[in-house]
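Next comes a single protein record:
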Amino acid sequence: MTLTCADIESDAVDRLRDEFSENEITALTAWIGFQNMSAKFNAALGAEEHGFCALPGKDDQQGA
């Protein structure tokens, strides 16, 4: 389900530290990881969208 694991460059982490505390960065990283896992899990199971989180412009494509 997962082919690669991207490395984060140190300058990106430094920019995060300019805006967030270490606890906030940890929480943000955990949330991103959870969302990534959820998306891969759903894709692997063939779970379909239910429209709970519609992306801008996507509704236009569904109605066409």
Residues 22-45 form the longest helix (24 residues).
